[in-house]
Amino acid sequence: MIAAFSAVPAAPAVLAGPGPTGRAARPSEIRFWGAFLVTMRPYLLPVSGAAGLVGLAIAPPESLVTGALAFAALFLSYGLGQALTDVFQTDTDARSAPYRPLVRGVVGKRDVFAVSLAGLLGCGVALALANPWNLLLALLAVLGLLAYSPLKRRFWAGPPCNSAVVALLPAMGILCGEPSIVRALGSPLLLPAMASAFSSYAVFVLLGYLKDVEADRPTGYVTLAVRFGRRATVLVSLAHALVAIAASSLLVARGADPDASLAILVLWAAGAAGLLASHALAWNVRRDADASPAITGFGRLVRRDPPRGGRAPPARARALRPAPPRVRRPRPPRAPVPGAGVNRLAALVLLNPAAGHAADTRRLAFARREIAARFEAVEVTLDASGDWKGAVFAALARGVRTFVAAGGDGTVHALLAALVETVGTEPLEELTLGVAALGSSNDFVKPLRPGDSPVPLRLDAAHAAPRDLVRVRAIDPAGRKITSLLAVSASAGVVAEGNAFFNAVRRHRRWTGPAIACAALRAIRQHRDFTARLKHDGREEEVSLSSLSVLKSRWLSGSLRYDLPVAPDDGFFGVAVCAGMGRFRLLATLAGLLFGRFRNRSGTRSFLTTALKLSAPAPFLLEVDGEVGRVVEASFDLFARRIRVCA
After folding, report:
1. What's 572-584 look like in SS3?
2. Per DSSP, what are the bridge partners of residue 402?
3. How confident is the model over 87-106, as pLDDT tens digits?
4. For residue 3, which of 74, 161, 176, 204 is within the disulfide window of CB 3.0 to 4.6 Å?
């Protein structure tokens, strides 16, 4: 039970001071490595060391050098993995741990990512020297670490993902001393060791969430504690603790040396008691500030501070003294979303029940409640037949000038198209668009704000601002002309193909991060460049097109984003082109988009323009705000009218 005595580490007692005034340290500088060591959390290295040591004890390596090298690699792996995942979680760390070097800008994300990834691969190579099969397990562990940050946004996915990575460590340790993969898998101690590591580390993760609720909630990390509360999290953690105790007891029974059975039993019992005591203390945690001392400070079970100016009262007097009455602290009032409390305007709400998170009844109820607090709203449901457009026409005839899209980017796109189609020659600028973002990615409302959880809302009509729209005119393979509007982005090539794959797996669209990643990787694997002709700003050129994006927002999908200076109302749209790229360079470009890095990369080009024409000799996929179709030609230009969008 690797988390028996330290289920959740206490945060270091460091006050967040002002960020550094100079540039971030580079790996060539000594101060980088000091900051990187802090990012690794050295006090947690025994977590992976203990898990790996179990496997090394089950099947000791033949030589002392091999064993020492394997243990060093296993020992360091936790810290390197922690640094890797920190790169993707600076949003919540800025609230819960502002002292960390990545948050303060002491080191850069790209450098920490590169160094930690190289270190993890180095550990994998060191373990592979003992057994080549370890390289496969090391790669699986790295993939699990990369997937953890997006999976943490789903309450059911984060702990199993992180625990599975730790559960691989005993297997790696066994393989260091057992060259045969068949005999290693057949070991009666392998499954109990992995189950113990998995379950006890799940306790570590779940109880760790108790100290980050107030930071995870506003940054969109829907952990178990955020979704169901702290006590529900403690109960789920307790179930894992019982499994860990059962698995470790089986491991002790099968693998213990009879001559040392009493000492092992005492050590095991102490670990089990500590694990259960953690949950007893965590049960009464109500605030983030109470979590770390409650779980790590077992001395609080018996310690009482003496009164000031005198000695502590005798033990019997302390035992007989009645406990002070418990005072329930009132919860601080929730900060209102901008726009609440004003005179309610008439509004039509277009609800898409098929949007990524609209099926979540709590989020949907929250969105409806917030909309009702601001508007005299009439709700209509988006349907495939288009009957809802009649409600838009009727609302305009009644004088309604505020419309709310309750769904994803596709819902925003559909509502904008209906408004443009319906208003005719009337000024579009007189209309106001609000958004309750219930979709999978919600790129229209990005960048997200600290108060955007659990539903990003743009409902402040009093501070609405104009936003450009881009007109898209395309010709399909049958020669039909198609006209639509672009509010977020359009794409051709590998990005459009990735969107098509993402749309095809609708049963997995609640798992937004993994679904986007799988769709992108599948698109890159199957993509073939095609010859395309681009015409813009009086120039015409022919390129071997890998990908093209037309942007009125820097955000592509999920965490992917460009670094083009695109603004909602600047009178331009951005174009990002990838030409002549193979799979490896496309993967590198995709990794760069995770950090918002695109410009000046090999094979890329980007610019701002007001008009663009794209054509190809053969039909190609064109995606517009998430909707994908096959065309042979597409033209983009700024729409003559703008719409006002709520703040």
Report:
1. CEEEEEEECCCHH
2. 347, 432
3. 999 888 888 888 899 999 99
4. 204
| Percentages of the chain per state (helix, strand, coil), in multiples of 5 | 50, 20, 35
Q: pLDDT value at position 15?
A: 36
Per residue in 38-78, pLDDT tens?
999 999 999 999 999 999 999 999 888 999 999 999 999 99
**Given this model, what pLDDT does residue 215 score?**
85
| Digit-coded pLDDT (tens) for 261-299 | 566 777 888 888 888 988 988 998 888 877 865 555 433
CB 433 within 8 A of CB 643: yes
Give strand pairing partners of 623: 491, 628
Dihedral angle computed from the Cα positions of residues 311, 316, 317 and 319, in that order, rounded to the nearest 10 degrees: 110
Q: Locate tokens 């990390």: which residue?
A: 221
Length of the chain, in residues: 647
Structural contact between residues 124 and 135, judged by C-beta atoms closer than 8 angstroms? yes
**How many C-beta atoms lie closer than 10 Å to residue 26's C-beta?**
11
CA dist., res. 498 & res. 476, Å (int): 20
What residue type is assigned to position 491 of the chain?
A: S
**CB-CB neighbours of 18 under 10 Å:** 6
C-alpha to C-alpha distance for 620 and 474, rounded to whole angstroms: 11
CA distances (Å), 496 to each of 413, 490, 500, 646, in order? 17, 8, 6, 29
Residues 175/130, Cβ–Cβ less than 8 Å? yes
Taking phi over 0 as left and psi of -120 to 50 as alpha, with beta for the rest, 622 belongs to beta
Q: How far apart are CA 349 and CA 407, in angstroms?
A: 10
- Strands 560-561, 555-557: pairing is antiparallel
DSSP string, 179-192: --HHHHHT-TTHHH
The torsion angles phi and psi of 133, rounded to 5 degrees, stand at: -65, -20
CA distance 433 to 405: 8
- Between CA 591 and CA 608 the distance in angstroms is 23
pLDDT in tens, 443-501: 999 988 876 767 899 999 999 999 999 999 999 999 999 999 999 999 999 999 998 98
Cα separation, 555 vs 442, in Å, equals 9
pLDDT at 79 over 50: yes
Q: What is the mean pLDDT of the chain?
A: 85
User: Cα–chain-centroid distance for residue 3?
Assistant: 25
**Prediction pTM value:** 0.52
Q: 341: alpha, beta or left, given left = phi > 0 and alpha = psi -120 to 50?
A: left
